[in-house]
Amino acid sequence: MARLKNIKQKILSVKKTSTVTRAMEAVSAVKMRKAQERAIMARPYARAALRMLGSVAGSQNFSNHPLTKKNVEGKVAIVIITSDKGLAGSLNSAVIRKTEQFIAENNLSSSDLLFICLGKRGYEFALRHGYSVVHHHVNISDGIEEEEFGRITNQMIELQAKGETREVRIAYTNFRSTFEQEAAVHKIMPISFEVMKRVIASITPERGKFAEVPNEDERSVPAYTIEPDAEEVFRALIPKLANITVFHKLLESKASEHSARMVAMKSATDKAKEMAQELTRKFNKVRQAAITREVSEITSGIEAMR
Description:
Layout: H1 2-56, H2 60-63, E1 75-81, H3 91-105, E2 113-118, H4 120-128, E3 132-137, H5 146-161, E4 165-177, E5 180-189, H6 193-203, H7 230-305
Parallel strand pairs: 1-2, 1-4, 2-3
Antiparallel strand pairs: 4-5
Helix pairs in contact: 1-6, 1-7, 5-7
């Protein structure tokens, strides 16, 4: 009887877990749809930024801007975007592995690196390996606006402008579809037309209405007459482009996080149902064996009394 009671308790526990994972799956599904819509709708905005950059990339004032200069000295800054919570499958571990791979391939030591961590998991990774974390931010809202996010990217821009970094990389999760997310490390500074083009190419879906339609070369825009002067225009434009790049990577990571968590919770719910069915079958077998044994004992007792 004690064994039957233990199995019954396990069945109830598994069913309660299934209820929790099903609720988390539903919540993640709602958040996923909203995050996907934001990420996908922001893609044309990012491509427009590329065309804007193409029209001014040949300017002498552009190449002399602190955010576009190639610094020989300085550290490599890595902006790592992860989630604050787990239960999202291999989402965070894939970003961390990609970051470790980049560090190993470029033979970078902890003294060569600076980290800006957006999300708790990436922050814990940097601290665990003894990397220098200059800024970290957790609990970033799914609905954060681009202007508000600018206060975070300003810290990254300041490091590059002061010459403390020679380049800035971003490690994040690229959203491909509900069931496919891809960890990536991209260079975002110094800003150049080629860097932005690679970044935009990575966020363009291969098919669908948001797929990029071939058009004229982004560099073929006629030269502009800049007022009041080129330096002032670039002072406002280039940091804005940097902010757009990182902001879009955050949107992609948010969409990927909720998608991965929804899929993980669905798998957990399905597994819990399977376990409950297996335990129920086991319970029935044990119960039937106990009944059979009791019937056999009663029958044997009756025979003995004759």
